[in-house]
Amino acid sequence: MKIHVITAFPDLLRGSLDESIIKRSQEKQLVEIIVHNLRDYSEDKHKRVDDYPYGGSPGMILKPEPIFNCIESVIEKYQISDPCLIFMTPQGQQYTQAKAIELSQKDNLFFLCGHYKGVDERVREYWEMDEISIGDYVLTGGELPALVVIDSVIRLIPGVISDINSAKTDSFYQNKLDCPYYTRPEIYRELKVPDVLLSGHHAEIKKWQEQKAMERTLAVRKDLIESDQNIEKNDNKNK
Ligand code: ADE
User: Fold this and answer.
1) How far is 190 from 58, CA to CA, in rounded Å?
2) Which DSSP state fits 39?
3) Which atom of ligand 1 is nearest to the CA of 132?
4) What phi and psi values does residue 160 have, to the nearest 5 degrees?
5) Residue closest by Cα to atom 6 of ligand 1
6) What is the model's pTM?
7) What is the pLDDT of residue 17?
8) CB 83 near ligand 1, within 6 Å
9) Residue 61: what pLDDT?
10) Residue-range domains of the chain with CATH
11) Measured between alpha carbons, how far is 6 from 20 in angstroms, rounded to an integer?
């Protein structure tokens, strides 16, 4: 998979893309992440990428030319026939684990990170883009939301996490939250690991984990159980 990120603030992304599982997935060549600096595609002699909105509203808007230039140049340079363009915006559809699974099955992802007050509307009019929001709150730009989506997608690519069953027990995978986990020591400050987990009885352990996951979900996210998102059904690559 190739992931292209288009941003006016590349340094906001670089550190995070160079750590932990995301770093290793690039080293293992399971994914290539290419960050494109919008300023390199500006036609302005001062490399400006933003301007005031017509109509006099407060805030700055990302100009259309650098965005069009960048998308077209990347598509041509990398010979991409099926770009999946994603615009990170609080006006987009709410991001879910089901969407992460869908995106993890694509070959080319493009993230356009909005910044300031937004992007010139002609970008949205011209390019067919998936518009994704990571939640009902507003951040200064789409860079952190893009990192959220990239992280959640990369960990689903086969080979990135050594045991894919670990991802399959994640929260949201079966419309419920994940169960609690314990590690060594067995007793810490008089707090004990539940006996069943030390029993070696796999069927009992599985039953306990399912029960705890259900209790947790009912306590804080009952809506998940009632939702009709069927993640497992959409997960073609990891079956
Ligand atoms: N840009 C600013 N806020 C955002 C959000 N909540 N989700 C996606 N992109 C954003």
Assistant:
1) 57
2) G
3) 8
4) -75, -50
5) 90
6) 0.91
7) 95
8) no
9) 96
10) 2-154 (3.40.1280.10), 169-238 (1.10.1270.20)
11) 22
The mean of the pLDDT values for the chain is 93
Cα torsion 70, 73, 74, 80 to 10°: value is 130
Pocket lining: 135 vs ligand 1, CB cutoff 6 Å: yes
Cα 139 to ligand 1 centre (Å): 5
CA distances from residue 183 to 6, 108, 188, 190, 232 in whole angstroms, order as listed: 40, 38, 10, 15, 28
Closest CA to ligand 1's atom 10: 89
> Is 142 a pocket residue for ligand 1 (Cβ < 6 Å)?
yes
d(C-alpha 49, C-alpha 133), whole Å: 22
Using a 6 Å cutoff on CB, does residue 89 contact ligand 1? yes
Torsion over CA of 103, 108, 114 and 115, rounded to 10 degrees? 110
In this structure, the strands spanning 2-7 and 32-37 are parallel
